Amino acid sequence: MRRKRIRTHEQAHLYLQQEYLPEHDQRSTCAAPEAENYHRRRPGRAELEEVFRLERERRISNDSVVRYENRFFQLHAQSRNYAPAKRKAVVCQWQDGRIEIEYRGRKLAWGGRSPARRRERT
Question: What's the predicted TM-score (pTM) here?
Answer without folding.
Answer: 0.58
